[in-house]
Design a protein that fits this description.
The protein is mainly α. It has helices at residues 6-24, 32-57, 79-106, 111-130, 134-153, 159-188, 193-199, 207-224, 233-239, 242-267, 270-275, 279-300, 305-324, 329-360, 371-374, 376-390, 396-411, 414-440, 460-478, 480-493, and strands at residues 60-63, 74-77. The chain has a two-stranded antiparallel sheet with strand order 1-2. Pfam families: Proton_antipo_M.
Length: 496
């Protein structure tokens, strides 16, 4: 019975804990972060049990309330959704580990409000990885969006305005998604993804099918921050509280890319998306390449670390979206692998930002002066995250970029390959500029009157998850072969 209900438990654990945190958190704030971690540990354990099970036995279908599909809401756990479930749960658990300390400092007295929204957001992301229903997909996306608006607005300075801009763009994206879902329901009389995928091939020639597809893709691309629909992301992630950005930056865009893959391969089909309209993939790959060039160039102009990372995220979205539309196995493998790797890389680097903000008050480039001496553990993890973002072996980022480049060459899309190489070179310039500042500048500021180094490392609750994220980048990099052959290849085989 427990095994059969693992998909529901993984979503319910943080959702129910959000209620507990909201009721008890104001009186016992010290318990909030540990309770949140317990609930996410439950979700992570559920995902750890589910992944090998579905790899061994095939997809698992879980129906809510006893209503059988296509009428009831169905959760589908196949190898790809199980991988995403584990990624979301594990990243959220590590992010929560660090969030307690940063939230207590940045949002004193509001921790219970923060973690209530935080846990509902994670619950929505977990449900998105498994949903087998198009309307439920829309509902879960809106739950994640609304909670994210609130979490961002809790920040200081321009955070409320950034959240308002996000609300405008997010609402537009939601309208596109709802219109696409409505068209599909009118055409097929069903909301179940598999059921729609069974009915749609008979209707492929209709303009309404193409309109629904366009609405769904544009809605997802807004949520993904795919260039040029990215304008909401830089300020939203920059001005959000550290505890918020550490969670949403690694997960929101990656889950949205996964949803794009799910809609193409489950609701529609590769034949419809890639073959019946052959000019569309070419245009999207070009848009992705242009987005990578422009976002990487904009990152060069930044002097604030988090703002720089946001433009790198926009470029990384171009990597993954473009790869899906290259239409070959190497590129799709690279896209899925890069979803995993980019989540870990972004987690590591935003944890660095959180630690620096905790000690320095901000994370402009000048705040990194002398940090290799004063915050050695933080900067060691930063170096690993930076090398992975650049694509230096054996870190994780190298292997997914290798697959992406091979996919681009196989597809003959050399503009995409050039964009990847350009972005990697820009990343090298960006991160080595920070390394230079942190290692060579302000070295005398790290010494006391007697010439001894003044260590001012962030608290253990911030440094420990940061070290874990850095180690994970190396471990995942060294395990790229088994990960691809043992998990990603079987996951993709279920899509076709």
């Amino acid at each position: 019975m427990i095994s059969a209900n693992l998909p529901a438990y993984s979503v319910a654990a943080p959702l129910l804990m959000a209620v507990v945190v909201n009721l008890l958190g104001a009186r016992r704030p010290a318990l909030i972060a540990p309770l949140a971690m317990v609930s996410l540990a439950v979700s992570t354990l559920c995902a750890l049990f589910l992944l090998p099970r579905v790899l061994r036995d095939g997809p698992l279908s879980y129906t809510m309330g006893g209503w059988e599909p296509p009428w009831g809401i169905e959760l589908i756990v196949d190898p790809l959704s199980a991988l995403m479930l584990l990624l979301v749960a594990a990243v959220a658990l590590v992010a929560t580990w660090s969030a307690g300390a940063s939230v207590a400092k940045e949002l004193p007295g509001r921790e219970h409000h923060f973690f209530t929204l935080y846990l509902i957001l994670v619950s929505g992301l977990l449900a998105l990885t498994m949903t087998g229903d198009t309307f439920n997909l829309y509902v879960m996306l809106e739950i994640t969006a609304i909670t994210t608006y609130g979490l961002i607005a809790m920040g200081r300075e321009r955070a409320p305005l950034a959240s308002f801009n996000y609300i405008i763009m997010g609402t537009i994206g939601a309208c596109f998604l709802l219109l696409g879902t409505g068209y599909l329901y009118i055409l097929t009389g069903s909301l179940n993804m598999v059921d729609i995928g069974r009915i749609l091939p008979e209707l492929y020639g209709g303009a309404a099918v193409a309109t629904a597809f366009a609405f769904l893709m544009v809605g997802i691309w807004i949520k993904t921050a795919f260039f040029p629909l990215h304008s909401w992301l830089p300020n939203a992630y920059t001005f959000a509280p550290s505890g918020t950005s550490v969670l949403i930056a690694p997960l929101m865009t990656k889950v949205s890319v996964y949803l794009m893959i799910r809609l193409i391969y489950t609701v529609y089909s590769p034949e419809y998306a890639f073959v019946l309209h052959p000019a569309v993939p070419h245009l999207i790959v070009w848009a992705a390449a242009i987005g990578i060039f422009i976002a990487s160039s904009l990152a060069l102009a930044q002097v604030e670390f988090k703002k720089m990372l946001t433009y790198i995220i926009v470029a990384e979205v171009g990597y993954m979206v473009g790869a899906v539309w290259l239409i070959n196995e190497q590129a799709l493998t690279g896209a899925v692998l890069h979803i995993v790797n980019d989540a870990l890389m972004t987690l590591c680097l935003f944890l660095v930002a959180s630690a620096v903000v905790y000690r320095q008050g901000s994370c402009r480039f000048e705040d990194f002066r002398g940090l290799y001496r004063r915050m050695p553990w933080t900067m060691a993890a930063f170096t690993v995250g930076a090398f992975s973002m650049i694509g230096v072996p054996p870190t994780a980022g190298f292997f997914s970029k290798w697959y992406l480049i091979l996919g681009g060459i196989e597809a003959g899309q050399y503009i995409y390959v050039a964009a990847l190489i350009f972005s990697s070179l820009v990343n090298a310039v960006l991160f080595f500029r920070i390394i230079e500042i942190a290692f060579f500048d302000g070295a005398d500021q790290a010494l006391d009157a007697e010439g001894r180094v003044i260590r001012n490392e962030a608290p253990g609750a911030l440094v420990q998850p940061l070290i874990l994220a850095a180690v994970a980048l190396i471990v995942v990099g060294l395990s790229a072969g088994p990960l691809v052959s043992g998990v990603i290849a079987p996951a993709l085989s279920w899509l076709y």
